Amino acid sequence: METNLTPLGIDAGNGAFKLYGATGGLEFVSQAATNGTQKVLSTLGLRKSKAPLAIHNESGSFYVGAGAHDFGRPVENLDVDRFNGTPEMKALLHGSLTRYQQRYGKFNAPLAVVVGLPNEVLTGDQAEQNIENVKRWLRGMHTWTADGEPYSVEIAEVKAASQVTGGLFDYLLDAEGHFIPARKGAFNNEVGIITIGFGTVELMVVRNREIVQRFTSGAASGVRRLLEIVNGQRLYSLGEMDMQLRAGQLELREALPIWEREVMGVIEKQWGTAWKRFAAVLIMGGGAILLKDTLPHRFNGRAYLPDEPVQAIARGLYRLTLLQQMRKAK
Global pTM? Predict the structure, then answer.
């Protein structure tokens, strides 16, 4: 990686885009809607709703971010094709880069991006092609307008890694990209990583710096499944349900234990009781917050839940780039 590039970790999750760089992190809700709804400007006695971020780029016009599904036609493409650079993914990327710069200031150099991808994208016969597709649409000059204001960002370098890899290095490395002495030894033993995202539950085990394939898998049992259980009559879009969940407006008393058993079923099917030999079991992702009072206790003191579990993957990918920079500089 060239030293004049700005490193940025991206976890392009189904629930939210997470960005992490030297100045800090950002979570941007992965909601996109085609921008075609006629707006009602005001109605006596009712509050005027604030429009979400409006993105216009080469693919068209979109509302993106929190509340987008209230203002346009929801676009909910949760399969692996989205990582090939679908129009809504480009709009979400541009929306997240907009909010990141509004919070932390404009980028002063081209970006070197490390993007975290689910296991489904990185395995199978199409894995290499999938990675090339991701690099193809991310790399280059991006131009768009956000609420009418022009933006441009150059992504000069793109690397791909599994989302669970980001979680591992968030545990192993400090904010400067150095190994944390008390945890470095775990890198040479066995470490289990569980990421519970919006779409999937991802599992990976690393032993002596190598992935143990038989313990590594992914399943479509993420937070989306919890929302589907609650939304049995399908009265709401997944995005609308997600916003209710974030606002604490969903009644989860009955659905949460059902979903937790499904998540545990995924873990037990792949790991059985082998986790008892792991040096640590790392649990992260947005779903980890929902299960933080129960799931860690199933691993008899081996579980580790990071601060800000939602940001852990993007933060770990960013720290990994710092480690690689230091190694190249030697």
Answer: 0.87
